[in-house]
């Protein structure tokens, strides 16, 4: 007797013998597809429950930003899997359905195009008239990714000598290297730096990735490469800081950074101080830029040191460590003019409103929202136009 056993153990088997044999295969396929969709649905319910826990759970149980992003990616992957399965089912049963909206992205025109022409199996006319002629074509573009390619660059320096005299041997000087006698090219070192500091890929993971291609390089070696590169990049960073501090208005903020504490077997808290310029909002001509400086603490003296030579307007949060920058006795120059941040002020009002439902806090939030709306409308205008708009409307 033909029976189908659903994946749910509590469900009784289904007798297929009563179904005509000509329809049995189609029914079986639908039953299997139904089970697969139930599995996918259970997975989605589980992921949604996890996300609800992330959003509404206790503070101590909430995930980090990276973990939250991974959870959302898992949910998006599961949804895509279910949608694809539905499309495959609709295609096999020839049931019309609405076209699924996809975020296909945009493929830049400067990307190289590798064209593949797919010809029919035969170009002979079915009615025997002869060979068909091309009257058009359909073009479909898809994004392709070629995995990172490892290769070895071999420098060959021929030696030359005269067959007649004995004046010696000549040979070209070896090309300069960032690491004298070292293994990597400058391109390899740049890849390690970008992977570490832009893509947040630790050295031990980079070492594992290289090992999959048969390249055994210890993470301590990768760290040595990065340290050497940092030394040579020092003048570039200094010049960037000098260029940014020549501006009339800057932003500054600091954030924590875990740092290994040798000898203690754990990490300690350091700070990355960011000094940034972005004049695009008011039609400035200088390009945006940011320079980061590591310091072991959040002491205001570090801000003084970083800002030596700057005497413009500095936008900050309300951290009291910056107060020393406005004093006549400021170390490193004249007192700095401080501009505070509406976003930080709004945050405090939001905390009061969420805690007490204060009408005063609510009114403050409404007024800040109106200021935000006005600023959005005048963004990109020149200083004079923005000043006039603010005096008239804000």
From TrEMBL:
Keywords: Coiled coil, DNA-binding, Homeobox. InterPro entries: Transposase-related (IPR052344), Transposase_IS66_central (IPR004291), Transposase_TnpC_homeodom (IPR024463), Znf_dom_IS66 (IPR024474). The keyword Nucleotide-binding does not apply. One of its GO terms (molecular function) is DNA binding. Residues 89-102 have a biased composition (Low complexity). Residues 27-54 form a coiled coil. Pfam families: DDE_Tnp_IS66 (PF03050), LZ_Tnp_IS66 (PF13007), zf-IS66 (PF13005). Residues 182-394 form the Transposase IS66 central domain. Residues 82-102 are annotated as: Disordered. Residues 124-165 form the Transposase IS66 zinc-finger binding domain. Residues 43-115 form the Transposase TnpC homeodomain domain. Signal peptide: none annotated. Transmembrane segments: none annotated. PANTHER family: BLL1576 PROTEIN. NCBIfam families: transpos_IS66 (NF033517). This is Transposase C of IS166 homeodomain-containing protein.
